[in-house]
Each structure stands twice: as structure tokens, then as C-alpha cells.
């Protein structure tokens, strides 16, 4: 389940401390990066998307996306907070299976670039055939684990 909270940048900037206190009260902790800010707990996550005017160094708008398997007290508190500060809240549609699959496949291509054994290079280096086969089996197993992990994150 997803809910989207949208507000102008000035509104978010004035009220971001109360937003962060609300997240902390419900046990969400900072898990993101400056490029992809998000807060999470074991059962729910809030992701922020900021539209900034780089020239003026000002925030134009803020979109906060709450995600969880079911409604929670945090969702109700976020709705109340958004209403109080002048933001808009709406239920958001989950991504389609096709979107999820495309995102996962793109992430796996990048993962493969780093982790997939280069069989030809290993043969040229004189690595035993059994070892190469073991490397490939291990890579396939880890790739399946990575796929499951990515699919789980995308459908949360």
C-alpha cells in the first residue's frame, strides 16, 4: 500500500523538523542517501523526492511516499500532519509487474557487470575447469538471491 503526500517546498522546509520527529516517534530511521532520501523501519518506509531550483538554491516542492503492507498508526499521523501543514495526501497505485521486472532486470545487469565470472579470461589464466564451473554455479545462486531481494524491495 502506498500513500503520496505532496506540498510546496516552503511548506516542507518550515515543517521538516516536525516531520522527522514524527518518523522517529514511530521508529523509522534514516536509511537513505542525499540522492535518494528515505526512512525505514521493519514494516514501513517513507521516501522523499525533492524538486530543487539549483540556481536559487531553493526547494520548489516535496513529495513524500509512504509504503507498507498495511495501514499503520504512522500513516494516520502523516495524513494529519500533511493536512495541518497544508499538503495533499492521496493513495498511490502500486507499480505494475512490468515496471518492477524492468527495474529488477536493469539492476541485475549492473550487478552482473561486477560479479559475473569471465569464463574465457579464467580459462586463459589457467584456472581449472572444475573451479570455473564452481564459480559460475556460485554466481548463479547469488544472482537468484539478489533477484529475490530486488523483487521484494520493488513490491514492498
Please give a structural write-up.
With 156 residues, the chain is of the alpha+beta class. The protein has two domains: 2-92, TATA-Binding Protein (2-Layer Sandwich); 97-155. It has helices spanning 9-25, 73-85, 97-115, 119-124, 129-155; strands at 2-8, 29-30, 38-40, 44-53, 58-68, 88-92. The protein has a six-stranded antiparallel beta sheet, covered by helices on one side. Strand 4 and strand 5 (58-68) form a beta hairpin. Helix 1 runs antiparallel to helix 2 and helix 3 packs antiparallel against helix 5 (129-155). The longest helix has 27 residues, at 129-155. It is elongated. 11% of the residues are buried.
The CATH architecture of the largest domain is: 2-Layer Sandwich
Tell me the strand percentage band.
Answer: 15-25%
Order of helices and strands: EHEEEEHEHHH
Number of helices: 5
Q: Helicity range of the residues?
A: 40-55%
Coarse shape:
elongated
Average pLDDT number: 89
Biggest sheet strand order reads 2-3-4-5-1-6
Structural category is alpha+beta
What's the topology here?
Blueprint: E1 2-8, H1 9-25, E2 29-30, E3 38-40, E4 44-53, E5 58-68, H2 73-85, E6 88-92, H3 97-115, H4 119-124, H5 129-155
Antiparallel strand pairs: 1-5, 1-6, 2-3, 3-4, 4-5
Keywords for this entry:
single chain, 156 residues, alpha+beta, six-stranded antiparallel β-sheet
Amino acid at each position: 500500500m502506498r500513500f503520496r503526500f505532496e506540498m510546496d517546498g516552503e511548506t516542507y522546509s518550515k515543517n521538516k523538523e516536525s516531520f522527522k520527529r514524527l518518523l522517529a516517534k514511530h521508529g523509522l530511521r534514516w536509511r537513505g542517501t542525499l540522492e535518494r532520501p528515505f526512512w525505514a523501519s521493519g514494516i514501513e518506509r517513507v521516501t522523499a523526492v525533492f524538486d530543487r531550483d539549483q540556481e536559487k538554491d531553493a526547494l520548489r516542492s516535496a513529495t513524500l511516499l509512504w509504503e507498507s503492507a498495511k495501514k499503520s498508526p504512522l500513516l494516520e499521523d502523516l495524513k494529519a500532519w500533511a493536512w495541518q501543514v497544508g499538503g495533499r495526501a492521496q493513495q498511490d497505485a502500486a507499480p505494475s509487474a512490468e515496471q518492477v521486472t524492468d527495474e529488477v532486470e536493469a539492476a541485475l545487469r549492473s550487478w552482473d557487470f561486477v560479479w559475473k565470472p569471465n569464463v574465457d579470461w579464467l580459462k586463459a589464466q589457467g584456472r581449472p575447469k572444475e573451479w570455473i564451473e564452481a564459480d559460475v554455479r556460485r554466481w548463479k545462486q547469488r544472482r537468484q538471491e539478489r533477484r529475490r531481494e530486488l523483487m521484494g524491495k520493488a513490491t514492498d
